[in-house]
Amino acid sequence: MHSPADRRIAWLVTLAVLAHLVVVVFHGQAHTRLAIALASWQQVYVMVVILLAPLVALALSWTRYARIGVWLLLASMLGSFIFGAIYHYVIISEDHVAHLPSGDARGLFRVTALLLLITEAVGVVVAAIAARTKLHRSTLRT
Asked: By the 8 A CB rule, do 86 and 45 touch?
């Protein structure tokens, strides 16, 4: 992690992950205020894939294990994007943006559901560009 390109990648990863984290926190508050419960497996998925994996990827992006971090970020953001798109916009349930229970946090839920998709898409793009850059640079060294 010495080159300016490595530092730029780490900063982009940092911005993407922290923006996503802020939205995750607010979306979690909307879930709580609307009493929208998740199944046990969904809670585990959210904690591991949506919350923890991007933070681990962020930490790794500042170390000599940055390549692993970039691939972890790509996998976690893609998994988060698919999960959120399916549960907020496809499957009809109280977790769907058009079928929310009544409450004052409906607007917050809808806005953060959309912001999650946006930040996750950005995370996928950042990770894909970073992975491509790191792959390209490693092939130049050999």
From this structure: no
